[in-house]
Amino acid sequence: MEYIIIAVSFFGIMFGADWLVSGSVSIAKRLKISEFVIGAAIVGIGTSMPEFVVSVIGAANGNADIAIGNVVGSNIFNVLGILGLTALFFPIVVDRTNMKFEIPFCIFVTLLLIALIFNFFNGDAPMLGRADGIILVCLFMVFMSYSFYRDRKKAPEHESEHKPEHEPVHEEASPLWISLAKTVAGLAILAVSCDLFVSNAIKIAKSFGVNDAFISITLIACGTSLPELAASVTAALRKNTRLALGNIVGSNIFNITLILGITPVITPLQASGITAMDYFVMATAVLILPLISLRGKISRAAGLVLFLGFIAYNAHLLYSQIA
Question: Are 113 and 139 in contact (CB under 8 A)?
Answer without folding.
Answer: no
